């Protein structure tokens, strides 16, 4: 008879049973050796906890030389190789552990992380699933081990960026998670778009000391981003970029001045398609200050975003702003020409500087700084129309804060204080990138405010600017002291006088020009000589300098060159109607009665209604008073 052979299904048992049997035999037969293994293992753990990585590595290896299948030492030796970025060696040890224990949760967790670091993401995901499965199989035997492995699972899912799985685990186990695991879970919830739940998770660990500040900042940022309607960056515990971008954007809304400036620098240094789109979203929100949006527009211009108009919410209105392509740098040759032009301007060789700047402009027509340099230089020699032309061209390229600063300087120099204030108010001084521009803008605001209002308001303006720059701008303290000194000086008051006729002025005893200039310092006299480009003064003493000025500026009528074409035409028009006084008498009396001339001129702006002799006298008197360094007369006249 043939025997019936029954094929029995082989029941697969876990490899850990055989491993534990061998360990028990080793412990029984060689207890002293086992004690050495355990001592080395504990020593390695203690060293690792104190950051002594290489010493810990030696201790774990010593344990394994005695008994190579001691799994705890193998697991931590793999951890150390991971810390040393030896991921292949770490993975090799993990696989040895899995051969000894095919359900070792710790090994699968570490293996998943090492594979992810090696950019073997599919294998990493497989190890991750095995880790989760093995955890569920073994859970319940040791509550301490369960808690420890659960936190390690959260870390693994966070590293692998398995946000959906980690969010699900959070919902199932949130009461069992440590503060750091709750933090990692909150990041995943945010990445999955569950912002309210993410904020709840953050708020449960508000007082967790090591990450308290970061948690609170992220919570506020999530709230802000949702309210404003801008995308929340992806946030990962092992990567800083998402946090940096989040903090940079959040600081634009409510950060201190130092943080806002740091945000602009971060955005400038991280140009990308995503960054450009984010900026465009920010430009449409009503929660950002206008000056911040203008600074972002400037960054977009630097990025070369000029293909189509940009939608911006400014002054409460949606506007379409076109950004022309702007040259950010010059080639080496043009750069040298531009620098040489700046040097010439600083030396007072304004015509040479203009020639050099014009050359740069012709070869780099969208290089904004050259237009601003041209405008500044034309202002130095009172070529006001040319200065304004340069500013108009600059504005067409990019309506930046530096351009409006140029306009304000132009209007200040021609005496139109209202327009000067209007233009300096069109930008926030924080939009300016150069320290020199910031100082110049603040000084200009103080001067204009003093002209239009009083010292009290000027002090208020200074306080406002101080809040912006005191902590972020080098040299602010010294600059503030200078401004306080400027404000504290009493502005000369023009005494009101009873109206008089021209004959009364004529009989007033004149103040001799020699006596006027005797009051000037020699440096001030030299500045007048330089202004009119008079040569041969270098070896003259003060008395001879005064004689030279009186002769050239007054007697030879060089003072007319200080007038604009508009002013000169007005002077000639009135002078043609005749006057009962000679020009010499006008010169003397205007110096004597400058206040009187100015008051009447200010109150009679319609020159056509004046008597010819009276109008001519007043006009020439005010203009000539300018030569006595009374700049305000000319400013008020043109106004």
Residue-averaged pLDDT: 80
Q: Could you estimate the helical fraction of the residues in percent?
A: 55-70%
- Characterize the main sheet: 2 strands, antiparallel
Number of strands: 2
Task: Supply the number of helical segments.
Answer: 34
Number of domain modules: 4
Residue runs with pLDDT of under 50 for 5 or more positions: 1-12, 490-511, 577-618, 625-639
* CATH superfamily descriptor of the largest domain: Tetratricopeptide repeat domain
Q: What is the CATH topology descriptor of the largest domain? A: Serine Threonine Protein Phosphatase 5, Tetratricopeptide repeat
* Intertermini distance: 131 Å
Sheet/helix structural class: mainly alpha
General shape? elongated
What is the CATH domain class of the largest domain?
A: Mainly Alpha
CATH architecture of the largest domain: Alpha Horseshoe
Radius of gyration: 40 Å
Instruction: Tell me what portion of residues adopts beta-strand conformation.
Output: under 5%
């Amino acid at each position: 008879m043939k025997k019936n052979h029954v094929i029995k299904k082989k029941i697969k048992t876990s490899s850990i049973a055989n491993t534990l049997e061998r360990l028990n035999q080793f412990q029984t037969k060689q207890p002293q050796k086992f004690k050495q293994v355990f001592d080395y293992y504990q020593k390695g753990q203690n060293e690792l906890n104190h950051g002594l990585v290489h010493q810990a590595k030696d201790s774990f290896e010593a344990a394994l030389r005695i008994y190579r299948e001691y799994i705890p030492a193998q697991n931590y030796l793999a951890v150390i190789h991971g810390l040393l970025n030896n991921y292949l060696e770490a993975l090799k040890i993990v696989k040895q552990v899995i051969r000894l224990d095919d359900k070792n949760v710790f090994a699968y967790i570490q293996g998943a992380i090492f594979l992810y670091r090696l950019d073997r993401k599919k294998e990493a995901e497989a190890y991750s699933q095995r880790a989760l499965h093995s955890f569920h199989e073994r859970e319940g035997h040791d509550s301490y081990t369960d808690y420890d492995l659960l936190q390690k699972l959260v870390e693994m899912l966070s590293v692998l960026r398995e946000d959906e799985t980690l969010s699900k685990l959070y919902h199932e186990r949130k009461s069992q998670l440590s503060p750091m695991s709750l933090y990692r879970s909150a990041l995943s919830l945010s990445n999955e778009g569950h912002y309210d739940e993410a904020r709840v998770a953050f708020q449960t660990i508000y007082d967790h000391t090591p990450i308290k500040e970061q948690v609170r900042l992220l919570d506020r940022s999530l709230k802000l981003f949702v309210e404003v309607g801008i995308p929340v960056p992806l946030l990962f515990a092992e990567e800083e970029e998402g946090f940096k971008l989040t903090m940079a954007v959040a600081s634009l809304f409510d950060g201190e001045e130092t943080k806002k400036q740091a945000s602009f620098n971060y955005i400038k240094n991280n140009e990308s398609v995503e960054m450009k789109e984010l900026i465009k979203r920010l430009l449409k929100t009503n929660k950002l200050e206008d000056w911040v949006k203008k600074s972002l527009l400037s960054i977009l211009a630097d990025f070369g975003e000029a293909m189509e108009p940009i939608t911006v919410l400014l002054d409460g209105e949606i506007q379409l702003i076109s950004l022309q392509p702007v040259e950010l740098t010059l080639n080496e040759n043009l750069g040298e020409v531009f620098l040489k032009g700046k040097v010439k301007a600083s030396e007072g060789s304004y015509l040479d500087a203009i020639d050099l700047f014009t050359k740069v402009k012709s070869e780099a027509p969208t290089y904004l700084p050259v237009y601003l340099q041209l405008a500044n230089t034309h202002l130095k020699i009172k070529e006001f129309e040319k200065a304004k032309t340069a500013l108009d061209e600059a504005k067409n390229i990019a309506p930046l804060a530096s351009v409006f600063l140029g306009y304000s300087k132009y209007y200040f120099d021609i005496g139109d204080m209202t327009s000067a204030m209007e233009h300096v108010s069109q930008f926030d001084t924080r939009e300016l990138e150069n320290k020199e521009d910031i100082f110049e803008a603040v000084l200009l605001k103080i001067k204009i405010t003093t002209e239009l209002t009083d010292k009290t308001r000027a002090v208020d303006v200074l306080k406002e600017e101080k809040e912006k720059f005191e902590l972020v701008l080098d040299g602010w303290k010294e600059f503030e002291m200078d401004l306080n000194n400027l404000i504290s000086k009493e502005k000369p008051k023009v005494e009101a006088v009873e109206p008089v006729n021209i004959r009364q002025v004529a009989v007033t005893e004149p103040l001799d020009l020699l006596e006027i200039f005797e009051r000037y310092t020699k440096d001030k006299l030299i500045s007048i000589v330089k202004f009119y480009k008079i040569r041969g003064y270098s070896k003259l003493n003060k008395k001879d300098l005064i004689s030279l000025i009186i002769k050239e500026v007054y007697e030879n009528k060089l003072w007319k060159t200080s007038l604009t074409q508009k002013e000169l035409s007005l002077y000639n028009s009135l002078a043609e109607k005749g006057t009962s006084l000679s020009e010499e008498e006008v010169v003397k009396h205007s110096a004597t009665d400058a206040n009187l001339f100015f008051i009447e001129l200010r109150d009679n702006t319609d020159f056509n209604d004046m008597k010819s002799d009276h109008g001519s006298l007043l006009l020439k008197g005010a203009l000539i008073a300018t030569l006595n360094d009374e700049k305000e007369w000319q400013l008020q006249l043109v106004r």
